[in-house]
Amino acid sequence: MANRTKLLVMGGVVAVKVAAYLVWRPVMLRWGTQGEEAVEPLPGDDQVPRPAFQSTRAITIDAPPESVWPWIVQMGIYRAGFYTHDRVERAMFHARYVEGKHSATRIHPELQDLKVGELVPYGGGVNATVAEIEPNRHLVAGEAFVLRPLPGNRTRLIVRCRGMGYISGAAQGAAADAPALTRAIVFALHRVPGALLLARGIDFLVADPLHHYMEVGMLRGIKERAEGTYDGGDAGVLRPSP
Asked: Which of 132, 145, 177, 205 is most buried, with most CB under 10 Å away?
């Protein structure tokens, strides 16, 4: 009887948490957006015309687009990082950055010449091809990074992600040089009954919130760096550009 009561209580707690997540999820997918930003057409939308999911997040930065752009164009694992939760990236992808174990704290001139067709490493063997790039305006590489000038030398940074899922999206296939784990996941999704449905569930309940956590951290990290307020816990960390 006691065990049954515990199971009922645990089931109730899980049900409440799932219900709370379902209520919060729409807010999560449009964090920080204003007006029509979450639904209006943005550069890169045509890259995935019928996405399984879409998120749009935004933040206002007290710096002009010309001061924000250099931080965006140098992003990537083994590049400047993504200015988010570096410990999580290192744990998940063994991530390393141009400055070692943390995302960049300054502009790196050698990482500024990004071109259409080049690859931006996201970690775990995943690379995003640069599909569009217009300096100080937008970058489309896996996600779309859109900069809009605001009065008072400020910038509205909008980031949109459209895709078929993080794990379930792997069902579309993997490159021959992808990590063995990635290829194994693709094989399982195609061959094991119910695996694709399980993958979609993991995307919905785990991967989407994790992506939200990392992306919000990225937006805040870009904002702090562009505004010159990021110190990484040390007032002397943020160095002026050379």
From this structure: 145
